[in-house]
């Protein structure tokens, strides 16, 4: 059944709009995915999907996908623009359940990425996507990091939230759990004792911590790492973009872990 | 001598504003660098600097740097906002000569990054910065790539334009020159004949080509490469962000070349 909506003041439209904010997402326990690529990823993962919302044209173009949803809303471009943040809305979106980001991870083997106050949503989303590509088990966004389900992060993750485990929480606690399980926690900060990232050989698992864009990792957490890694620079650039560094480190460490 | 400007309609202010556009930059042969970090990088490189433009507060806070400029303009926040594109202007900028992006590179040894229609300015700037960090000799932005000196690219490059050579032009011609010099041109595209990026061992030099964000490399250029490389994925992500891929490839290939 397709229901038509024409007013941006409709009660449902107002609820969807609230999903742009962290508060709205927490209250409803849901978030928005925009574009056919993400709608398809969500369908494949088959985890708690609700309303499919599209313009008349987009819905008409994909009857097979529309048929898989119980609740379908045909909306005007004005409603689409009001609900999404994007400059050029793609004309299709779906409301999905937020995963439980505070459950307890029982298996800490494999590769984990920890984000210590990484604030740019594009960086956070790109790192989740890269962690997925590198075969990581999960990503933990420490307190003070960008919200994992903000529209910008969701756009950059490109569906990787369906491929690995995502958590939010106090990294101090996570450090303890990883070390308790017998795996190293690798910080990333240039200091006299830091090790070239190419020489470590984790066995069975590890956690890699990336810090804030401008300030790096917090002092308190740095003290709790097993070792700190650095990427030797050949040129004159003072630093690398955090998502680029994370990519270089994740692919190298995943190789070292897997053999 | 510090000259005060208070009107956004001042002729000089209008000229500076034009530097936001490609046309304006070409006409004046100059571009804008914003923020103290970039002003310092430009001073260190000491290549064709012109007006230093700042708010009263910023100029007063750095008399030593101000003393190094012949032309200094004290402007209102309104003028600053009119000239820069940034949401929160940093209150200081400098006008610098554009380098000659079409000169002929005589030495093609070492590592080179070629950009085939990479369109996002943030990606282009981040890749130049990463190429600098990886010790690359230069970057060539092929036709259809983002302008290397647009404000967004300049922001993301973080001063790396002063550390390596930058060029613009027809990549077909550059491919020929690199191959003529005896070095391989590595494309990046998943195809049945592509090689794992970790197994190549360039001698003396190479060029790495990164393609467009959505469409990859152009068919025509792909046919002209020496070999095509791919990054094996362990997870389920379909692809990597182009700046992240470039970072992984550049650091690995620089190691293979130098080590």
UniProtKB/TrEMBL annotation, chains A, B:
GO terms for cellular component: cytoplasm. InterPro entries: Alpha/beta_knot_MTases, MRM3-like_sub_bind, Ribosomal_eL30-like_sf, rRNA_Methyltransferase, SpoU_MeTrfase, SpoU_subst-bd, tRNA_m1G_MTases_N. It holds the Pfam family MRM3-like_sub_bind. The keyword Membrane does not apply. SMART domains: SpoU_sub_bind. One of its GO terms (molecular function) is methyltransferase activity. GO terms for biological process: methylation. Keywords: Methyltransferase, Transferase. Residues 32-102 form the RNA 2-O ribose methyltransferase substrate binding domain. Belongs to the class IV-like SAM-binding methyltransferase superfamily. RNA methyltransferase TrmH family. PANTHER family: RRNA METHYLTRANSFERASE 3 (PTHR43191), RRNA METHYLTRANSFERASE 3, MITOCHONDRIAL (PTHR43191:SF2). This is rRNA methylase. It comes from Limosilactobacillus fermentum (strain NBRC 3956 / LMG 18251).
């Amino acid at each position: 059944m397709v229901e038509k909506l024409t007013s941006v003041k409709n009660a449902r439209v107002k609820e969807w709009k609230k999903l742009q904010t962290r508060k709205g997402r927490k209250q409803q326990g849901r978030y928005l995915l925009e574009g056919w690529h993400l709608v398809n990823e969500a369908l494949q993962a088959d985890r708690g999907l609700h309303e499919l919302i599209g313009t008349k044209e987009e819905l008409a173009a994909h009857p097979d996908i529309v048929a898989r949803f119980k609740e379908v809303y045909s909306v005007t471009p004005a409603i689409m623009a009001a609900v999404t943040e994007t400059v050029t809305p793609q004309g299709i979106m779906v409301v999905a359940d937020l995963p439980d980001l505070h459950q307890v991870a029982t298996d800490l083997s494999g590769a984990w990425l920890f984000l210590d106050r990484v604030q740019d949503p594009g960086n956070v989303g790109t790192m989740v996507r890269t962690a997925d590509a590198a075969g990581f088990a999960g990503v933990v966004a420490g307190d003070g990091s960008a919200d994992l389900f903000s529209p910008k992060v969701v756009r950059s993750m490109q569906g990787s939230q369906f491929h690995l485990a995502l958590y939010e929480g106090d990294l101090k606690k996570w450090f303890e759990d990883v070390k308790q399980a017998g795996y190293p926690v690798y910080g990333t900060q240039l200091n006299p004792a830091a090790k070239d990232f190419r020489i470590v050989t984790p066995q069975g698992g590890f956690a890699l911590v990336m810090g804030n864009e401008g300030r790096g990792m917090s002092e308190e957490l740095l003290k709790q790492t097993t070792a700190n890694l650095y990427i030797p620079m050949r040129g004159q650039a003072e630093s690398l973009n955090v998502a680029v560094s994370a990519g270089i480190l994740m692919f190298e460490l995943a190789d070292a872990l897997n053999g």
